Amino acid sequence: MRILPFSVGAVARRIKWGNEMATVEIYTTMFCGFCYRAKRLLTEKGVEFVEYDLDEQPAKRTEMLDRAAGRRTVPQIFINGAHIGGSDDLAALEAEGGLDPLLAAAAPG
Ligand SMILES: N[C@@H](CCC(=O)N[C@@H](CS)C(=O)NCC(=O)O)C(=O)O
């Protein structure tokens, strides 16, 4: 049962990232520790993301290879269409303070 017409998580995200949020996409597979780590970082930051599970959507693998310049490992992460890389790349971006500005940029269009 839902008492409030919105979720507490949605309100927290709005406070943190504003009404406009970046579009975050992540290609994953089911049993993938690096995918889990990347999703956990995004979730802890209150970021919503679109997940393409390659086990459930095998055709997405070709799309991932195209967009990620041939990188085959999962996860592959994109923010507003720009290729970020894998879990280690995402963590490094966060450590150097580069992730928040990308997340705060509204999705184009
Ligand atoms: N350094 C990469 C490592 C990613 C990685 O090794 N992912 C594994 C799955 S957890 C994978 O794709 N293995 C298949 C392969 O290496 O071709 C990252 O941080 O994303």
Note the main attributes of this structure.
109 residues, alpha+beta, Glutaredoxin, four-stranded mixed beta sheet, binds glutathione
Structural overview:
The chain has helices at residues 8-17, 33-44, 60-67, 87-95, 99-104; strands at residues 24-28, 50-53, 76-79, 82-85. It is α+β, with helices and mostly antiparallel strands and 109 residues long. It has one domain (24-104): Glutaredoxin. Strands 2-1-3-4 form a four-stranded mixed beta sheet. Helix 2 runs parallel beside helix 4 (87-95). It is globular, with a radius of gyration of 14 Å. The protein starts with 7 loop residues before the first helix and ends in a 5-residue tail after the last helix. 21% of the residues are buried. The structure holds glutathione.
Task: Note the topology.
Elements: H1 8-17, E1 24-28, H2 33-44, E2 50-53, H3 60-67, E3 76-79, E4 82-85, H4 87-95, H5 99-104
Glutathione (GSH) binds next to helix 2 and helix 4.
